Amino acid sequence: MTSMLIRGGAAVVLAGLAVLAPTAAYADAGVRSDASVRSDAAAVQETRAFTGFAYENSPKEAKREAEKRARQNALISGFLNEQCVLLYANSTRLAPGYYAGDAAISCTR
């Protein structure tokens, strides 16, 4: 019985420390200079994913057109082609000579 009380007390103490840990981590935030806060804000980057779909006569054309449409969506949102990376490009046969393609890109600025 005593060992259960000791374990319970230890669990309560650890839970209390876990609650106070985030407070201690942010306590020095007010001491930081404005320059360091600005540099942290400048380091934040925006990352978005864009998708594109197409229906073409060959799987290669479907993938290429789907990627092209995903990149067009990124350009509309203000991303450059150099800021984007192809995540995947797939094609699916719907019927003889008719393919669906889908592609996704991730852009960071």
Q: What features would you describe in this structure?
A:
By secondary structure, the chain is of the alpha+beta class. The protein has three helices and three strands; from the N terminus they run H-H-E-H-E-E. It has helices at residues 2-26, 34-42, 59-76; strands at 47-56, 84-95, 98-108. Mean pLDDT is 81; it is low at 23-29.
- Please give the largest β-sheet: 3 strands, antiparallel
Based on CA atoms alone, the radius of gyration comes out at 26 Å
Measured by DSSP, the beta-strand proportion falls in 25-35%
What is the string of SSEs from the N terminus onward? HHEHEE
In the predicted model, the low-confidence regions spanning at least 5 consecutive residues are 23-29
Strand order of the largest sheet: 1-3-2
Mean pLDDT score: 81
Structural class: alpha+beta
Kindly, what is the distance between the CA atoms of the first and last residues, rounded to a whole number of angstroms?
A: 59 Å
Number of helices: 3
Number of DSSP-assigned strands: 3
Share of helix, binned: 40-55%
Shape: elongated
SSE order and pairing:
Blueprint: H1 2-26, H2 34-42, E1 47-56, H3 59-76, E2 84-95, E3 98-108
Name its key features.
109 residues; alpha+beta; 3-stranded antiparallel sheet; 3 strands; 30% strand; elongated
Question: TL;DR of this structure?
Answer:
The protein has three helices and three strands; from the N terminus they run ααβαββ. By secondary structure, the protein is of the alpha+beta class.
